[in-house]
């Protein structure tokens, strides 16, 4: 008697730890581009090669990405993925840094829009990674597969107690009540445990900064300062836009735009920055009008203002001047972090108020 088997379907199971891996790829790539640009600028842009040869660092980027691919395919476990993410990110950053050479007919590394295009690519990567992270809740099948992944690490040489706890919690929350789920749970409980590794210097520094940041955002004056910074920034952007429109638009003279490059005409980059800045400022002013009604609503508008600045204003700034744009992006990211904490505080306060009201009835 011949038993018929159904063909195996192509399936993609989401890795619940993908967020940390993808973040490592992104930040490794960003850091690599910044380090390469800083190194080349400080050393006078040396060339590796000679006698008519130039070994572009894009090639090293390709080799690193290939090494990350081999490591991912050839080695099992969490540690290999973590290392591959960092190596792959460094490789991608090394590769994409030479974008200007491959979009110009004369292979111009210094093509002015290059850094703005690289910035846009990183923004798109960030948005894509966020979409992967928030796509949907973990299904029972995904929970089983991810718990089995933790078990593989345990069989290979031990797994940390925190990862075992996370895997068991995942099985319980997913509703996977099959015999396979129970067998996995029992195997995880008996798997070899590795000692929790002591935090690295980078981890300790991040924890110290996080504690200081939490203390800062809970001070009475912090929120007032953040709101004041938003208002001052918005007023400054409006003033700069008006000055540039009057001076450059009517050809009266030359003005230095936001401390960057002298502007004497309304180029596409200048016009784009002005329009994006005005829209960002408008979102800030709407937020100010909402402060008396709802702080949470006001903070949401402030967040929209910052996101508009990060996704649009900074693109045009990177086109005009890399260093000035980096400073602006850094301040935007700090304000965005503060706003996220303030929004979470307001949400917690609302929950507390609703619970207090419900307890009275």
TrEMBL record:
Keywords attached to this Swiss-Prot or TrEMBL record, sorted alphabetically, are: Membrane, Transmembrane, Transmembrane helix
| Source domain of life | Bacteria
The record lists the membrane-crossing segments as: 21-40, 52-76, 83-103, 109-129, 225-248, 268-289, 301-319, 325-343
Q: Does the keyword Nucleus apply?
A: no
Protein's recorded name: Uncharacterized protein
The scientific name of the source species is Nitrolancea hollandica Lb
